[in-house]
Amino acid sequence: xxxxxxxxxxxxxxxxxxxxxxxxxxxxxxxxxxxxxxxxxxxxxxxxxxxxxxxxxxxxxxxxxxxxxxxxxxxxxxxxxxxxxxxxxxxxxxxxxxxxxxxxxxxxxxxxxxxxxxxxxxxxxxxxxxxxxxxxxxxxxxxxxxxxxxxxxxxxxxxxxxxxxxxxxxxxxxxxxxxxxxxxxxxxxxxxxxxxxxxxxxxxxxxxxxxxxxxxxxxxxxxxxxxxxxxxxxxxxxxxxxxxxxxxxxxxxxxxxxxxxxxxxxxxxxxxxxxxxxxxxxxxxxxxxxxxxxxxxx
Length: 298
Prior knowledge:
single chain, alpha/beta, Rossmann fold, GMP Synthetase, Chain A, domain 3, 2 domains, six-stranded mixed sheet, three-stranded mixed sheet, 10 helices, globular
């Protein structure tokens, strides 16, 4: 059978998480219409007869100055190590190609590359022709696939393109396994997804979620979690008047988790202010975003 690893790279908000969820027909990575939604590498495992593709969803490559974003960039670039093929996603609705060209030039790739021109539903025909001409001229060795992850267009072509570059071998994971992340990780991400959904633009990006305890008994799960923010005024926003906002976030996250796991979920949320956590290596470790692999070169 064909089996191997495929990392998915690109700028923030290009649709990487939407694509991996669409490819797997199951939600393994959170999605929000804001940049920097994904902060951790997430493995999504696609199974088909005689085919297994292990997709790696990565944080968006960006130029943020905080230690958190530097760590995320290192994580995304490290995902290129020992993979069989890489997907680089490009937003087809944008007319300026320079940022993608600069990133592509900076990535050290020793594997085949597939350029996925995503969001074609938002691009005009002349825009698509110009983008394809640009990509063919600058990246003649790359495979180019047009897609719209939001509308599921081009998914078959992406899978076929990836399959072409995979080696023959034994499956790495059982057929019923779709991600390597446990329930505790998924709970953290679902809570953070609701922070992105309900809060103002700058607040959720300065927040993290930690799972303090996770207890699973038969058909019920009990979770105690903490929302970590940087400023006291953010804490007040997250809690809301008479606790209305934190209740809304908690209730929505709980309902989404119950749908995912088909069991009863009890979720307790509290809010903690930890000033400067995004730029302090020690505090990053406390909230689960420390660079566990060291500070080496990308």
